[in-house]
Amino acid sequence: MEIVEVGPRDGLQNERILLPTEVKVDYITRALDAGIRRMEATAFVHPARVPQMADAEAVMAAVPRRAGVTYIGLVLNRRGLDRALAAGVDEVNVVVVASDEFSRRNQGTGVREALDAWHDIAGGAAAAGIPASLTIAAAFGCPFTGEVPADRVQAIAAAALPGGPREIAIADTIGVGVPTQVRALVAAIREVAADVPLRAHFHNTRNTGYANAVAALEAGVAALDASTGGIGGCPFAPRATGNIATEDLTYLLDRMGVRTGLDLPALAATGTWIGERLGTAAPALLGRTDTFPPSPPNGSGVSVTP
C-alpha cells in the first residue's frame, strides 16, 4: 500500500501557528528519512486565503531532491499551475469539491467552473510532462448542505476523465464517512473510470478514519493519504479536524501484514516533533506509546513489517 504524506500541505494549512520555511523543510526531510516517497509538499494558492502556504516557492527550493521521491503541489487554477511548474514540482493535485456551496466557499467557484479549471490545469500539466491527479473533496458529506449522493461523486469523476487524471482521490474532508460509503463510492467511480487508480483521503473528525482506510484497502484503493502527527484540517470547513495519522495508519497496515516500507518509530518521533513545533500534542497516538512488538531499546527504527 502506498501512503501519500500530506502533512506539509493539508496538515499545516489549518494550523494557527505559521511555521518558518526551514521547519517545514525539516518536517518534509524527516518524513523522507522515515521512508515516505510521495508527498504533497505545499499548495500554490492565494496567500491571503491560506497564509500557511505563502512560502510555497521557498519550500520547493529547499526540499531535498532524492531519487524516487515525488513532490506534489496542490493547485486550483492556471496561475497556481504556472507557479508550481516554475517551482519544480513532480506532480500536481487539483481539488474539485463535490458540493456547490462548499466549492464556492473553498475556491470561489461552483462545481462546473471547478471542473473547467481542472481541464485547463490538466491540459497545461500534460503539455509540461507533469502528471495531474484529481481529488473530489467533501465526497462523503458537505458541512453546509449535508449528504452528498454517490451518483454526484460519480458524475464528477466521469466529467473529469477527458482530462486524463493520473489518479482520482475521494476525500472525506470533514470526517463524516463510514466504511459502507467508502465501498459505495469506490464502486460508483469504478463504473465510469475502471482503469484509473484510486486514492483515498480520510479525516478522523468522528473517529471513523482508520475504519474507512481499511475499507478502502479492501475495496482495492491503490493509495492512502495521511499526515504525520495526524495534524490538519480544512480552513473553510467548520470544526474540521486532522487527517488520519501516518504513523497510526502504518502501524495498522503493518500489523495486518500490508507492506508500507515505512520506518514506524521514525514516523512516531516526527509526529511528536511536529506537535511540539505547533505548540500542542499531535493527535496521533503511536507517539504516546510504542510499536508492538516494542522497538529495540537503542531506537534503531526497525519496522514491524513482516
Automatic annotation (TrEMBL):
Q: Name one GO biological process term.
A: L-leucine catabolic process
**Segments forming domain Pyruvate carboxyltransferase:** 1-268
Presence of keyword Ligase: no
**InterPro entries named among the record's database cross-references:** Aldolase_TIM, HMGL, PYR_CT
Report the leader peptide range: none
> What start-end ranges are recorded for coiled-coil regions in this protein?
none
Q: Where is this region: Disordered?
A: 286-306
Give the superkingdom in one word.
Answer: Bacteria
UniProt entry keywords in alphabetical sequence: Lyase, Metal-binding
Molecular function (GO) terms listed? Answer: hydroxymethylglutaryl-CoA lyase activity; metal ion binding
Q: Which PANTHER family match?
A: HYDROXYMETHYLGLUTARYL-COA LYASE
**Family from the record:** Belongs to the HMG-CoA lyase family.
Protein name per its UniProtKB record: Hydroxymethylglutaryl-CoA lyase
